Amino acid sequence: MKNKRFWLALVIFSLTGQIAWVVENMYFNVFIYKMFHASASDISLMVQASAVAATLTTIFIGALSDRLGKRKIFMCAGYIAWGISILSFAFIRADVIGGLFGAAASAASVGISLVIIMDCVMTFFGSTANDAAFNAWLTDSTTPENRGAAEGINAMMPLIAILAVFGGFMGFDLDRAESWTTIYIVIGVLVLLIGIAGFFLVQEAPAKAPDELGYFATIAYGFRPAVVKRNKKLYWSMLAFAVFNIAIQIFMPYLIIYYEKSLGMSDYVLIMAPAIILAAVVTAFYGRLVDKKGFEKTVFGPLYMLALGFILLWLFPARIRTEGLAMKLPVFIGSLLMMSGYLSGMAVFGARLRNETPEGMAGRFQGLRILSQVLVPGLIGPAIGAAVLRGAATITNDDGTTSFLPNAKIFMAALAVVFLLIALLSFHEGVRRRKED
Q1: Is the predicted pLDDT of residue 1 greater than 50, yes or no?
Q2: Is-contact 302 340, C-beta < 8 A?
Q3: What count of other Cβ atoms lies within 10 Å of the Cβ of residue 301?
Q4: HEC states along 155-180?
Q5: pTM assigned to the model
């Protein structure tokens, strides 16, 4: 049983990291949409560039942390640099850029480019601190007996972070540049302070790297055919995890814009908050179920919840504007199922990947995990979403520019990918059982 200091460090670092990722993954899209009138293709490009940055960072820094046998310094110093990089977004303002470049169209184009570039910079520090170091530290600090419980806590943190961010953002008018400036200052300072506190809170969990491997050999280790052959369960799980995350990335970059602009739900925070709280509870309990039942018996539950959520979100939104509050109930239930399936699935796959990671090699395998969690889904998912939204309805902004309106087709596209994953897992499970017989 881990001590209280471990659980406190897990909660604080996981929650703070997820708050920063929520701002990036869900609100950078809103930021460039509202401030610079970004298109679906712009948002897709930003997600893809960030995915590449996250994967390369995690591969190189994860291997380095393995070679040094240190996680704490990368976590704490990384969070400090991460906070500073978030603070820099306070200076990316349309009025400042407009004063330098004049025309609104030029200012918008420059603003979008700056956000994409700085998103990659921020992702470098965030992936160093969280994806590479924190996740390796969590793997090193847990065992198969408590990994599901720890992963359940870790997996529900994105929902709690969404709740915290939604609640915090309620007091801001996101159509005003001053609101974004305040948001970036608050989030940046929070992440920076947690990095400083980590030097006193985090207990090091050294990972001993094999002496015969150099740095670049450590980077290449997980890509060796012999390593793949020895760890078939790990690599199969990564493949399934990639498909799972492709489904998520089809709709997630457009979700807030869809609720607010397409559905006209200006009160989406009040509607989503109960769904987020309930989904967090479901995720916490489901993580413990993973410890008891194992991957094969728990992986399908989240997928069915996800599928049902997508179906509800696709069926009902067309009538929400005309029939008011009564039609928001299916959207609430659909969102609850979608979020519960998403986070419970993250807990199931997260525990599986940690359990199958060779002992003492957590850092070098974090890059492969990010490849399946971020890079492949980040390249494919948003591209599918942008393709589905091609030709979507548009609205005219106050300055004469236009913005697209996401529609419910993104949920149908995500549903198709979930069905594909269920088929793949069912086939694999059937093959496994035949071999056992």
Answers
A1: no
A2: yes
A3: 18
A4: HHHHHHHHHHHHHHHCCCCCCCHHHH
A5: 0.77
Tokens 């994953």 sit on residue: 421
Helix (H) or strand (E) holding 150: helix 147-169
Q: How far is it, in rounded angstroms, from Cα 289 to Cα 293?
A: 6
For a pLDDT cut of 70, what percent of the chain falls above it? 90
Residues in contact with 352: Cβ distance below 8 Å, sequence separation at least 6, in sequence order: 237, 295, 299
Contact partners, residue 64, CB within 8 Å, separation at least 6: 74, 215, 363
3-state helix, strand, coil split of the chain in percent (to 5) is: 85, 0, 15
Q: How do strand 402-404 and strand 394-396 relate by DSSP bridges?
A: antiparallel
Burial 52-61 (b: 16+ CB within 10 A, else e): ebbbbbbbbb
Dist. CA 65–CA 60, nearest whole Å: 9
Asked if the model's pLDDT at residue 11 lies above 60, the reply is yes
Dist. CA 24–CA 191, nearest whole Å: 13
Residue type, position 103, single letter: A
Q: Are 32 and 42 in contact (CB under 8 A)?
A: yes
> How many domains does the structure of the chain reveal?
1
Residue 428 in contact with residue 236, Cβ under 8 Å?
A: yes
- The answer to whether 383 and 368 have CB atoms below 8 angstroms apart is no
Cα distances from 300 to residues 125, 241, 247, 424, in angstroms, run: 34, 13, 15, 11
User: What Cα–Cα distance (Å) separates residue 48 from each residue in 74, 100, 112, 243, 247?
Assistant: 25, 28, 14, 16, 15
- Among 106-110, 111-115, 150-154, 398-402, whose mean pLDDT is lowest? 398-402
Q: How confident is the model at residue 322 (pLDDT cuts 50, 70, 90)?
A: very low
103-119 burial, b for 16+ CB within 10 Å, e for fewer? Answer: ebeebbbbbbbbbbebb
Range with lowest mean pLDDT among 100-109, 330-339, 341-350, 360-369: 100-109
- Residue 182: give its domain's CATH number: 1.20.1250.20
Q: What distance in Å separates the CA atoms of residue 381 and residue 387, rounded to the nearest whole number? A: 10
Q: Mapping DSSP to helix (H, G, I), strand (E, B) and coil, where does residue 402 land?
A: strand
Sign of the torsion formed by the C-alpha atoms of 193, 197, 202 and 208: positive
Average pLDDT of span 22-46: 86
Closest residue by Cα to residue 104 from 114, 91, 94: 94
- Residue-number span of the structural domain to which 86 is assigned: 4-436
